[in-house]
Amino acid sequence: MNYSQLAVAGYPIGSGAVDCGNRMLVTQRLKRFGQRRGRDGGQGVLTFRTLLNSGRFDRGMGHARQELAAMEAARNRQ
Hints:
Order of helices and strands: HHHH
Helix content: over 70%
Number of strands: 0
Radius of gyration: 18 Å
Mean pLDDT: 81
Structural class: mainly alpha
Shape: flat
Low-confidence stretches: none
């Protein structure tokens, strides 16, 4: 990466914005008072929120549906 050109163009070149975004994403949903989640439940919430906030929800859900269909087909073959 050419950091000087990116900085002049106004692009953020540090990791602070990403770190802050991740911290907010996790804190807003997983560290609220009274909420208890296991590892799988927490991962599900984070995956859902990440897809939703990144504008990739439809594509992500399409992949999830394909995986579920493949799992169901494999279960039916047994």
